[in-house]
Amino acid sequence: MALFAVIGLGSFGATVATQLISLNHEVIGIDLNKKYVENISDQLTHAVIADATDEHVLDELNIQRCDAAVVAIGEDIEASILCVLHLKNMGVKKIWAKAKSKSHHMILTHLNVEKIIHPEEDMGVRVAQSLSYPMVSRYMALEDDHYIVKIEIHTEQHGMPLNQLMKHGPEITTLLHKRGSTLQYHVDANQVLQKGDILVVEGLLEPLRHLSKYFRHL
């Protein structure tokens, strides 16, 4: 269990905070908007109506003891930057921050924020990926154009041996096969697939694109 501060409890910040709580962490939520705080106060470890651009407020809340802080302040770029500066001055080592624009991102980069988040842009990428590659339910980008993707087997692939499916992506490595609650990490190439099976595979983008065309046009 870790202790997190989430500063800014609009839709993005509230989602981050409640998800962290669901993962059994402790969360201090901070926002100047009384309504936002009241909407979520009963779900968080501690929720405070406060101005996070005031370093004395952050110090009184003992934010420096947090394992990490998420600055989810939305429209007010100046407030976001001030908050990050205060957190840095207080010695909070792990800071993630939401960026509203390219200039905001650039400033946060110069402040050495560990991770900069673009929620709308990231969601747009995920929607586009889902529309473009219908067999992919989730993916994770690695370095050098490699991806790990989660594939759900549908009716068209039911009864098909794994090696028959993967001949359309021979460069792709199968990392995991899941059927119900059973996980198989060393997957037999002759494994017969069933509707509802999950495959986790790894490969370069182009072979994955080729495999996605097979799912789309089968």
TrEMBL record:
Domain RCK N-terminal stretches: 1-117
Gene3D superfamilies from the UniProt entry: NAD(P)-binding Rossmann-like Domain (3.40.50.720), Regulator of K+ conductance, C-terminal domain (3.30.70.1450)
Record-linked PANTHER family: KTR SYSTEM POTASSIUM UPTAKE PROTEIN C, POTASSIUM CHANNEL PROTEIN 2-RELATED-RELATED
Protein name: TrkA family potassium uptake protein
Species annotation: Acinetobacter pecorum
